[in-house]
Amino acid sequence: MNFDAPVLLVGNGPVDAGDVALAHPFCRHTVAADGGANAALMYGLALDATIGDMDSSPADKVPETHGEIIYISAQDSTDFEKCLSVISAPLILGIGFLGGRLDHELAALNALVKTAQNVVLIGEEDLVFKLPAKIKLVLPIGTRLSTFPMGAVSGVASAGLEWPLDGHEMSPSRFISTSNRTVSPEVTLTNPGQPLLCILPRIHLSATLKLFKS
User: At what angle do helices 79-86 and 102-114 cross, to 10 degrees?
Assistant: First the structure.
């Protein structure tokens, strides 16, 4: 499915009205990952499509309100991964993928670092995205900014953080960088194409989305 504008992707995890109110204004299209259709419809979102193996929304019982049904039966991928394999968009904002079951949340983060798409996942307190090759963020001084490697990471450089990342060999079992803080109104991070997540308070969604504007 090719979209020329940002897509709101609704997962089958925890979703509330605040998530919808925060993310939906930035998106022109809405897609559900399987059972995420239930939350989307609960909050009055018109669905362009529902994608997945339909174990939470059986294909023979899905009403017309679920939009186009894209059934993918493969059991070696999650519904989130199925959606990422089908959707092509300048930006995907995901709600309902963080929180709830820990295995589902970890699987979503794993998929996040593997995709080449621009994806931002929004949770109850934070948002998370895979760091591109280089970013420049404008944030209030003292903003919490965490990074988490999902594999071996090296050669990262930073400016504007209280604890610089330069020179560190990062991995889940070695150095990470949670609860770092900004010490300058402008923060730059350079990441040479490695599986590194950036985590910010969700109130900074607007500043984050500026990173992905073409």
Answer: 20
- Classify residue 171 as exposed, middle or buried by CB count within 10 Å of its CB (0-12, 13-18, 19+): middle
Q: Assess contact for 21 and 41: CB atoms under 8 A.
A: no
Q: pTM, whole model, 2 decimals?
A: 0.93
Q: Does domain 7-124 have CATH number 3.40.630.30?
A: no
> Where in the chain are the domains?
7-124, 134-212
Rounded Cα distance between 52 and 22, Å, is 25
Task: State which amino acid sits at residue 123.
Answer: G
Structure tokens at 67: 């939009």
- What is the per-residue pLDDT across 65-93, written as a single tens digit (0 to 9) for each? 788 888 888 778 899 999 999 999 999 99
Q: Given 1.10.1040.20, 2.60.120.320, 3.40.605.10, 2.30.42.10, which CATH number is that of 134-212?
A: 2.60.120.320
Q: 157 is written with which tokens?
A: 């450089």
CA count, 13 A, side-chain hemisphere, 103: 1
pLDDT tens digit sequence for 184-203: 999 999 998 889 999 999 99
Where residue 12 falls (left for φ over 0; alpha for ψ -120 to 50; beta otherwise) is: alpha
- Cα 11 to Cα 37, 128, 190: the distances in Å are 8, 15, 30
